């Protein structure tokens, strides 16, 4: 690591270190907004599954979540989603950022 720069080749000792990197990869308001919309749709699809027990809603969840997020990365951030290298931390980061957007800690 050089200075404050973090790249995808670095290893993170814990989620807190990763989350600092994760937020740096979501500077574009449009990327954050697309992540938020995708996460909200994932929650709605899960509720729809619980109410209907139709499997198509479960299948739709990753398509909605990752679809919106990846559009944000490829077209607005112009970077490679952390999901490809750090799938668990990235998934955790999505939900922490979602909660921080709701609470106002991270700008929508």
What is the molecular shape? globular
What does the largest sheet look like? Answer: none
Give the CA-CA distance, first to last residue: 29 Å
Indicate the percent of residues in helices: 55-70%
How much of the sequence lies in strands comes to under 5%
**Cα-atom radius of gyration:** 15 Å
Low-confidence segments, given as residue ranges, are 1-6
Number of helical segments with 4 or more residues: 4
Secondary structure tally: strands: 0
Question: How do the helices and strands line up, and which of them pair or pack?
Answer:
Blueprint (H helix, E strand, L loop, with lengths): L14 H10 L4 H24 L2 H23 L9 H17 L5
Helix pairs in contact: 1-4, 2-3, 2-4
């Amino acid at each position: 690591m050089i200075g404050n720069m973090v790249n995808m080749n670095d290893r993170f000792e814990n989620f807190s270190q990763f989350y600092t990197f994760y937020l740096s990869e979501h500077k574009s308001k449009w990327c954050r907004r697309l992540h938020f919309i995708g996460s909200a749709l994932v929650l709605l699809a899960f509720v729809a599954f619980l109410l209907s027990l139709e499997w198509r809603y479960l299948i739709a969840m990753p398509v909605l979540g990752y679809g919106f997020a990846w559009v944000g990365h490829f077209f607005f951030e112009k970077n490679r989603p952390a999901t490809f290298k750090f799938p668990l931390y990235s998934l955790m980061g999505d939900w922490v950022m979602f909660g921080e957007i709701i609470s106002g800690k991270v700008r929508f």
